[in-house]
Amino acid sequence: MTASEEIRFRAMGTEAHVIVVGAEASLLDLAERHVAWLEDRWSRFRPSSDVSLMNAMAGMPVRVEPETVLLVQRALEGYRVTQGRYDPTVLGAVVRAGYGRSYEQLGDAGVDALDAALLDRGSSAIVVDEAGGTVTMPEGVGFDPGGIGKGLAADLVVAGLLGAGAAGACVNLGGDVRVDGVSPDDAGWLVGIEHPFRDEPSAVISLHGGAVATTSRVKRMLGPEGQRHHVIDPATGESAQTGLASATVIAAEGWQAEILAKAVFVAGVNEGRRLLAGPHAMPWSGTTGLLVDDDGATVRLAGLDRYEVVHEGSAA
Fold it and tell me: Fewer CB in 10 Å around end: N or C, the chain?
């Protein structure tokens, strides 16, 4: 057993949990500040953030932080790899579905109408000037970092902790989990995959390095029986209805796991299986996952057995 320290806090509209191994507890404060710094730049609910400025000044190049350039580049790569099943420009559809404010601010009475509801999609027309440090959004198009922001933030914070001297680290941002380095015990980093309808996990996996992300319609539902939720099918502009309640993906990095979890959820069981195993997923090798359909049945995808364990202890 290797000594570890941990901290829990709220950030990015969700619960955050950070564990460091073989390092001083002061690194936990570093992690919390790092997440807060990224949220300040990526939140679409903060008017001065990079993302808000990009959207407000659509049609013009906007100078942003290097981390924001990376965020947009990763999102566009996900759009290409998934052939549009993941699209970071569904902001208008998200607002039309009822998510005009952060989820923790939403009530049963709905939300005020926002200009963002008029936005259209347009990932292919986003211009990123890495050398100049600018992003140009097309007019009438809005960028929503959504889940990929949490996945990439987990990647960056873990890298920062290891760079600051931690022997190992785990960052969990609302279920987007990224781990690397030495774990607290020899079993590796244990991660429970939450079941959308049951208290016990669908599975427990062990990672020595990598990421896990889950997309679910169950936690963020508006309207009866989950017919209106935050996972938008870019092809229709409506909440995705593919027979899935959740999709969990294991990948090398958090941003990849988050993008693929959304894409698989939108694709459904059969197309999602082909997406992870097919040639379009080859740039992100080693991906696998677990799906839960609307009846609560689990579908284990090829390769999951490499990570799944039977364990009676706690999981990250």
Answer: N
Half-sphere exposure of 252 (CA within 13 A, CB side): 6
Output the DSSP codes for 115-172. Answer: GGGG-B--GGG-EEETTTTEEEPPTTB----HHHHHHHHHHHHHHHHHHTT-SEEEEE
Tokens representing 281? 């997923």
Give me the amino acid identity at 271: E
Q: Distance between CA 90 and CA 85 in Å, rounded?
A: 11
pLDDT of residue 236: 84
| Ramachandran quadrant class, 223 (left: phi over 0; alpha: psi -120 to 50; beta: rest) | left
For residue 279, the model assigns a pLDDT of 54
* Global model pTM greater than 0.85: yes
* CA distances, 289 to each of 48, 170, 285, 300 (Å): 37, 19, 13, 7
Beta strands in the chain (DSSP E): 4-11, 14-21, 61-63, 127-129, 134-136, 168-173, 176-181, 189-193, 203-207, 209-216, 221-222, 228-229, 232-233, 238-239, 244-251, 288-293, 298-300, 308-309
The string of pLDDT tens digits covering residues 171-181 is: 999 999 999 99
Amino acid at 246: S
